[in-house]
Amino acid sequence: MSSRISARISAISESATLAVDAKAKAMKAAGRPVIGFGAGEPDFPTPGYIVEAAVEAAREPRFHKYTPAGGLPELRQAIADKTLRDSGYRVDASGVLVTNGGKQAVYQAFATLLDPGDEVLVVAPYWTTYPEAIKLAGGVQVDVVTDETTGYLVSVEQLEAARTERTKVLLFVSPSNPTGAVHPREQVEAIGRWAAEHGLWVVTDEIYEHLVYGGAEFTSIATAVPELGDRVVILNGVAKTYAMTGWRVGWLIGPSDVVKAATNLQSHATSNVSNVAQVAALAAVKGDLSAVERMREAFDRRRKTMVRMLNEIPGVLCPEPQGAFYVYPSVKALLGKELRGRRPQTSAELAELILEEAEVAVVPGEAFGTPGYFRLSYALGDDDLVEGVSRLQKLLSEAV
């Protein structure tokens, strides 16, 4: 008998980060004091001026109707202006496609660029959605694995070793989810020149562009390496920068043929993004970055606290991230040790034990392509952060 669900869709894995977050919320609803480090979601409300713009849009009759599938013209222009302001990359409004969140931009980029068998170089650890989007497009993911010894930074030599005649796309993400790694400008330039030399497309996810700390600086590969020409696609959105995860507005920037093809796909898949959300995004990208800076300062404080506290746990090694709002500590030294009568052999098993025994939710490294690690978000309140990591300290210090 044939399967009720297609093989293509059956092969999709549930989002591990959302699954952990859902389980933590279900346990909290049942009365357990769970602290969740799973979801990459700022704990701040969306800034008030953005909310007010949405309220006014809801009252405007023209936004009650269909609008262009590619996005409101004024929002596309504002995104082009914001991109020039923030990364120095010049693009016409026609080179912008507004999507239902960053995830739709990811999916449509790969669906537009890949034919079956085309290979995509993906730096691991990687965000959980990338493999599924590549797989759905018929592409073949080729992992290029990094670890804590290099601060999770990838080298040209590693990329070249993974390249084959089937390689079509390099996925480049800096700042990174899940590691918080930020490639310095000279590395970005070297990687971009290497990609240009070999005629590769570069898909770059820049959604954490404003969340960098210390001496780190965000560098757009599209700006740093003009030799890439029209073989670069930029993905971005308002979710992380403006605390707008639930508004679902992202975008794709690329050459005209890619944007036109992706817009055609979107016209059949979803049509236009909610007009109210688009107007909210318009207020966000046209506004100044003062609200963003206040959030960044809080994330920076929490980042330092979490790294310090995690590194106090025997068997945990946590490099200091330079961007985004995640830490990615190694817990390999804890695997196989006895803890509350059990001997977890994998980081997934250890994460399950921690949830049950300490009521703390973390995402194991298996979800990001590198077992032996955890991802913890520090985009939650200071008190919850300290309490959650304190619980980890107490529990994991019992491992023998």
What does this structure look like?
The chain is an alpha/beta fold and 400 residues long. The protein is 41% helix and 12% strand. It has a 7-stranded mixed sheet, sandwiched between helices. The protein is globular and about 60 Å long.
Question: What attributes does this structure have?
Answer:
400 residues; alpha/beta; seven-stranded mixed β-sheet; 41% helix
Low-confidence stretches: none
What percentage of amino acids are in beta strands? 5-15%
Compute the number of helices: 14
Q: Strands of the biggest beta sheet: in what spatial order? A: 2-8-7-6-5-3-4
Biggest pleated sheet: 7 strands, mixed
Principal-axes shape call? globular
User: How many distinct beta strands?
Assistant: 12
Mean pLDDT: 95
Order of helices and strands: HHEHHEHEHEHEHEHEEHHHEHEEEH
What is the terminal separation in angstroms?
51 Å
- The helix/strand class is alpha/beta
What's this entry about, in short?
Helix content is 41%, strand content 12%. With 400 residues, it is of the alpha/beta class. The chain starts with 6 loop residues before the first helix and ends with a helix.
Ordered list of secondary-structure elements with their pairings:
Elements: H1 7-10, H2 16-29, E1 35-36, H3 48-58, H4 73-87, E2 96-99, H5 101-113, E3 119-124, H6 129-136, E4 140-145, H7 156-162, E5 167-173, H8 185-197, E6 201-205, H9 221-224, E7 232-237, E8 250-253, H10 256-269, H11 275-286, H12 290-311, E9 326-327, H13 347-358, E10 360-361, E11 363-364, E12 374-377, H14 382-396
Parallel strand pairs: 1-10, 3-4, 3-5, 5-6, 6-7
Antiparallel strand pairs: 2-8, 7-8, 9-12, 11-12
